[in-house]
Amino acid sequence: MRQLAFVTLPLALLVAGCVGEMKGNWPSLAPRPGEVGDAIPVTGPCAGCGQDMVAPAAVPVPVAAPLPLPADIGSRLASVEKTIAAVEAEAPAKARTARAAIAAAGRSADRAGDAEVERSRFESLFLSLSIEEQRLDGIGDDAAGRDGAAAVMDRIAALRTRLAALQQLRTSLPD
Predict the structure, then answer these.
(1) Alpha-carbon distance 166 to 74, whole Å?
(2) 77 near 139, Cβ under 8 Å?
(3) I need a surface site. Which of 23, 140, 167, 169 has the fewest CB within 10 A?
(4) 159 close to 136: Cβ distance less than 8 angstroms
(5) Phi, psi of 172 (to 5 degrees)
(6) C-alpha 135: how far from its chain's center?
(7) Spatial distance between the Cα atoms of 149 and 155, rounded to a whole number of angstroms
(8) Are 75 and 135 in contact (CB under 8 A)?
(9) Phi, psi (5° rounding) for residue 125?
């Protein structure tokens, strides 16, 4: 009996709603009076017809002049260049010392420790270069889109070439 009531009651309500008289234009998806706020634009019945489809001529926006480079870019590039030059000056001598120690060690377990110490000294010479690589990234970001950025980017590219050459030297030691 209860099951019959649960089925027939919703069915009766549904049928009553369907057979009722439809006066007016409801249900409609159009907004009712009072539902439209000021934030929603009200358009006329012919929105998008004829002349209002043609957009008015766009007013050109004045382009701002590019900003000047930050004042410290030159000193930052000089600092990176100085660090790279110091590593370039010291690397060949350290590489020769490390190669000599590795060659002298050969298969001798007694001298293998000395060879590893020299290899570590050689490798430690290059630790500062990863920091300089990141500094170059920051300098490039600071210069991007500014007046004179092309010259800065050229200097950065030249410094990156020198860093790549040092990286090749770093990996040139025998195993």
Answers:
(1) 23
(2) yes
(3) 23
(4) yes
(5) -85, -5
(6) 17
(7) 10
(8) no
(9) -60, -30
pLDDT tens for residues 101-117? 988 888 788 888 888 99
Looking from the CA of 123 toward its CB, the CA atoms found within 13 Å total 9
Beta carbons within 8 Å of 42's beta carbon, 6+ residues apart: 36
| Chain mean position to CA 37 | 41
Which regions of the chain are under pLDDT 70? 1-2, 15-56
Task: List Cβ neighbours of 140 (8 Å cut-off, separation of 6 or more).
Answer: 152, 153, 156
Angle at 89 between CA 169 and CA 170, to 5 degrees: 15
Closest CA to 99 of 9, 169, 5, 23: 169
Region of 34 (left: φ > 0; alpha: ψ -120 to 50; beta: rest) is left
- Which residues make beta-bridge pairs with 138? none
Count of Cβ atoms closer than 10 Å to residue 111 Cβ: 15
CA distance 73 to 117: 38
Rounded-to-integer distance, Cα 93 and Cα 88, Å:
10
Q: How far apart are CA 146 and CA 116, in angstroms?
A: 47
